Amino acid sequence: MFNWLSDFFRVRRDQLRPRAPHIERVAAHNSHFLNPPLDAHSARVYEGSPWVYVAINRIAEAGALVPLKVYRLAGEKRIGIENHPLELLLNNPNPLTSRFELIEQTIGSLELHGNAYWFLSGDSRGLPREIWLLRPDRVAIVPHEQRIVAGYLYEIGGERIPLDAIEVLHFRRWHPDNDFYGLSPIAAARNAVLSDRHMADWNRNTFGQDNGVPAGIVNIKDFISDTDFERLKREWRGNYGGAQRRTAFLRGGAIEWQHIGLSHSDLDFLQGRQAQRDEILNIFGIPVGLVSENATEANARVAERQFIERTLYPKLVRIAQKITQELLPFYGADLVAEFDDIRPTDAQARLEEIRTAYPLLSVNEMRERYFQLPPVAWGEVAVNHRNSPFPLQDETGRGEPLGRLLTTVTQETRKSAVENELAQWERFALNRLEREAPGRPFEVTALPDELAFEVSAGLLFARDRESVKGVFAGVRAGLD
After folding, report:
1. In this predicted model, what pLDDT tens digit does every residue of 199-231 receive, in sequence order?
2. How many whole angstroms separate alpha carbon 184 and alpha carbon 113?
3. Into how many domains does the chain fold?
4. pTM higher than the cut 0.85
């Protein structure tokens, strides 16, 4: 064997292989596993464990609120695309599912099963027309020696429906012991979940029907006849006995009660349940400060930041990159999908960074790096350059170039936010024209109150697409 290895490594490759040599063996090794290695009790755990339910719902609902946008790559820059067909498809994925429900169920499936599947149905041009979420416990992957994945089998009612690989988008978490399926956090939290469930069952049984009397022994120290002994047992159990608890009787001397059970205090019951709660939430990446009743406002704020940065945002990146890799190629090349970056920033640290950078960077570099604004004609000089609109000193010798720059940029940023929200509201209003039901109202965040009232009043009388566009065109004209 060592001679064979020596002969193999004696010849050094001067270029990479066109294909990974282990793929065929991986496919052959997994070809007989037609059922996913799912925990059959995952759904029941979600239904039966309050902390699993809280953790998964907190992650899934928070993720479903974050917008996903499509960009076109132009070198190192990303150019936003308004009303991209994928965004419109996600807003109405199928007749039974809304965008919120699709993302919520996708993230929930990943947390519950470690896998999530989208089935794509197409139109006459071959572009995705509908997205349907498939139940992970019904999906099996069919390996292929060349294509890695030949397709999928969807089993329901004893029937296996074959699905082509191009029709299914498979999201999965990392599984160290499986080449095709993801690992659910519930697998890691199994012992904590079972322990918490057993403690909850014990607590319920303790205070359940006919369980009000503690378990114990009635010891009769004085000798009594069999007739009196049976009568005493009968009367005791008739008055104090229960279906679940049993009381033992011993004949001896005077009647004495001896408690043999353990109380909640003896078992440190509340501390035990709290420890199980903390372990389950930590496995799912939920800081305890988000749910703890004793958390201060500062602790809750830190916990929320940790949840967004370390738990929620990475999960959104996983989904967005899979969409970029397998779904956006239907619409062309050089496209990328990204969820909004919801990670909180430290305002003071950001300001200090800007203060340090502005003497070294041009106005346009500052606008692009820190404010994501387009370049301007006068922005190629440094902020403190004598030809800059923000000179180091004004005629009084007391210039504040950074403050003036931040004021100008802030005004432009606010105007850009207003214009973006107007565009979003216009798309929202146009989409509502196609629906019979009125649906929810648009949520205004950046528009001033007077402009929001003007738009709302105009939309009350808009009955077609042209009149809707006219309302927003009039408001934009007022901005200029």
Report:
1. 666 666 666 555 545 556 666 666 778 887 787
2. 5
3. 3
4. no
